[in-house]
Please model this.
Amino acid sequence: MYAIISFMKKLRLDKYLSDVLPYSRAEVKKIITKESVTVNGVIETDCGYKLDPSTDKILCDGEETVYEPFRYYVLNKPAGCVTALSDDRFPTVMDYLKDINTKDLSPVGRLDKDTEGLLLITNDGKLSHDLLSPKKHVKKTYLALVDRILSAKEEEMIETGIDIGDDKPCLPAVIEHLPSLDKDGLFAYSLTITEGRYHQVKRMFEAVGSNVKKLTRTSFAALTLDDSLEKGSFKKISLNDILG
Ligand code: URA
Model:
């Protein structure tokens, strides 16, 4: 006979509910005192009740709650919003995460206001740190529409590590011209980098005399931008989707 031992940390009922529901701690306290919450079938009105999320069954207004310590989402970021938790002037990427609990979520890295495409958003701080660590060299691929075609020599400069005016040249990158995606007099390039310097892609093209007119991130770590995910839409994903 084996004893099942739970190693999950005990949580206060109000903290648990504000983690799993899109409500603040104050709102959750009101819900609890209104006798709307049961723990293992028994109404619980003590906000400080200590529960074990791995074994206790918590219902709010008769609906079962699910505890997920870490949550992962992919947003297809549209142009015009900033990668920030809040901003006085512009919409933020967080504004697109409708009907979910966004309290502890943050974007992993940032895309410029005019950049579109794949943005990972999570509450897993350790994963976020690892994915952004300069030591981990996580791959990011962009589709860049630029105003001047590059020579073979210029492509080679990018491939071997171009100097963009920082202390050190960029790490080697992979660049490919995609003629089938050229449009409106612009030339399409796929560029894969393993760093995250400020405006890096735009500065890499500028360094060879070409200007990025439209930039879309198409992949990050093991994630690729899903064609069916419309601009401004998001979807829930798993840790395995990110790590591959
Ligand atoms: N490089 C850029 O120049 N901009 C981005 O948004 C991302 C990478």
Summary: The helical segments are 13-20, 25-33, 125-132, 152-160, 200-206, 239-243. Residues 85 and 172 are 32 Å apart (CA to CA).
